[in-house]
Amino acid sequence: MTDGVGVTKHRARRTAFIFLGSVAGLLVLALGTILTVGGIFVPAAYLQPWSATYYRQFADPRMQVVAQAVLAPSGHNMQPWTVHLDKTDARVLYLYTDPTRLTPAVDPLARQTLVSQGTFLAYLQVAAEHLGYSATFALFPNGSYDENNLKKSMSELPVARVTLAKDSDAKTDDYASLFLSDTNRSPYTSAPLTAAQTSDLSDLADGSAATLSILSDKRDMTTLGNFGKQGTLIETQYEAATKESDAVFHSTEQAKNTARSGFAVEGQGTSGFMKYFLQGLITLVPSVNDDAAGAKNAIALTAAGVDHTAAYGLISTPANTRTEQVEAGILYAQFSLRARTLGLVMQPLSQVLQEYPTMAAPYAAIHAQYAPDGQTIQMLVRMGTATTQYPESMRRDASALVHKP
User: Fold this and answer.
1) In the chain, pLDDT over 90 holds for what percent of residues?
2) Which of 9, 136, 267, 277 has the fewest CB atoms inside 10 Å of its own CB, making it the most exposed?
3) d(Cα 41, Cα 335) in Å, to the nearest integer?
4) Contact between 71 and 130 (Cβ < 8 Å)
5) What confidence tens digit (pLDDT) does each residue in 305-328 have?
């Protein structure tokens, strides 16, 4: 009788082990499938420009600075830049807006796209100084755009004529910051900005056509945080904006290597093993990242972020000309780079500044409070000390930017 009970128990244990082993095997197989689909074995060519030695593959100094300027932030990470290398003057290149990389739903006036031209120029200038050059800009050297035929104008008229000149006195404190992620959406620590940090950042606006305000009192923090949350909520409810974002979201390494621009899971701070897992899961089960889930996540990220922010930055211009938009972008990039040099991070919360109809009320409200004399607020950012580091996002190959208009 005892032997029979023992045999029965042994068989039961053996059956349980076989079952658990089968389940474990299936889980391992499923995990392997998810990670493979997510691209764990695919080299991330889209990250090559983040290497500090990437620019060295180019012999032309103009391409060397372009190869580093491509790290600049841009609206929707569209990187809407093309460059023309002057054939008659080896010191000169021209920057153009790429009209195939516009985002008309969220940026119907292409204002953010022109701000992005300024970020490219600021990064290029820092890269040039590191290589022993000064970089001077002539904005819209052939005249400004025909607003009634904007795309054609963008193809024909350069945003800037850039001239490099050898300069033994050229120097920059912000070069290392080029290679740090420009946007950090995580909650920040409770540490306030120091007086020295605030002063250093504020001084960047000296001589700029744009102005920079750094605000950290309780009333401004609450008001601007609410504008940030309101803008995110409205954008996630705007179908055209959602479709536009969906079109430039890439969920696998293969897709990212092809696109090298737009959105990916890194924008949520996802990296390492979890990046591949999430990419594979989204690809196999798209409902995991459908519009409802994406909206919920965006709203939650913004809410958590504004509740843990040390200060806000506002960049404004007297009016809203194309030149001023570019100038605002230059100042924003300088602001972002210097913040990283000082150990700070930031995140744009500029949805409330977008010019489509459903954003009209909060757009008017923030301008009434913070631009009462008719200025245009070009950028709203939150800033502070990071609690986690964000991964780098996709960047185009520098050679792909070269174009003869």
Assistant:
1) 80
2) 9
3) 37
4) no
5) 999 999 999 999 999 999 999 999
